[in-house]
Specification:
CATH architecture: 3-Layer(aba) Sandwich
Largest sheet: 7 strands, mixed
Number of strands: 11
Distance between the termini: 34 Å
Strand content: 15-25%
Shape: globular
Structural class: alpha/beta
Helix content: 25-40%
């Protein structure tokens, strides 16, 4: 398991970055290099590898940081499995009190929203997702976590969330991300003209930066 960090300035707000399926922390970091460089000027980004190595997708390469991974799987009947293990894994492999925001792409975006609602990251002030679907099982696991807290109905619900989705995304429908936004609480939805990706165009990255500035000023 590898966790990458961009920037050594501990004074910067820390953002946990969660990749999509068929990616890893390193792959995701490289994919969003343009956005990463701009975000890193003001934030300390940490890229975490998912727990499930997709062996069938692995190339003949000894570098496990490039091994495609997943946070959970989908069974033949369409149900998402190992979702609770995914939340457990992130909690066990991070210093949950030290993060100020969570950013995620695709599966990682759904997981970012669920982690916010779970209450496991008490200091989260912002969540950013891109190409992330609404997955009921993730919300069920988050609710199970938060049920042990004093005020479970409010945990993470008021945390500002920005959800981006492409109108030409062939993997995640706009409506699915819209549902994620509605169920996640206090969310804003941006539909862009691209496909299934984390936007790196200057205008979109600036929207993300503006969102973070506003969230951290509250």
């Amino acid at each position: 398991m590898a966790k990458q960090s961009d920037g050594d300035n501990n004074a910067k707000p820390r953002i946990l970055c969660l990749h999509g399926k068929f990616q890893s922390g390193s792959i995701f970091s490289n994919k969003i290099a343009g956005a990463r460089r701009k975000l890193s000027r003001g934030y300390d980004l940490h890229f975490l590898d998912g727990p499930i190595v997709l062996e069938d997708e692995c190339a003949n390469d000894d570098d496990m940081s490039l091994a495609p991974r997943s946070w959970w799987l989908r069974s033949d009947d369409g149900k998402h499995t190992l979702v609770d293990e995914a939340l457990d894994y992130v909690i066990q492999h991070t210093d949950t009190d030290s993060y100020d925001a969570i950013l995620g792409f695709s599966q990682g975006g759904t997981l970012a929203t669920a982690l916010s609602l779970s209450g496991a990251f008490p200091n989260i002030r912002a969540v950013i997702t891109a190409g992330a679907p609404y997955i009921p099982e993730a919300f069920e696991v988050a609710a199970s976590y938060s049920s042990n807290l004093d005020n479970p109905n409010k945990v993470g619900y008021d945390t500002p969330k920005l959800h981006l989705v492409g109108e030409t995304d062939a993997l995640v429908a706009v409506e699915s991300t819209r549902q994620l936004c509605e169920h996640g609480g206090n969310g804003s939805l941006i539909v862009h003209d691209q496909g299934h990706l984390f936007p790196t165009r200057s205008a979109r990255v600036q929207e993300i930066l503006d969102f973070l500035t506003d969230a951290f000023s509250r």
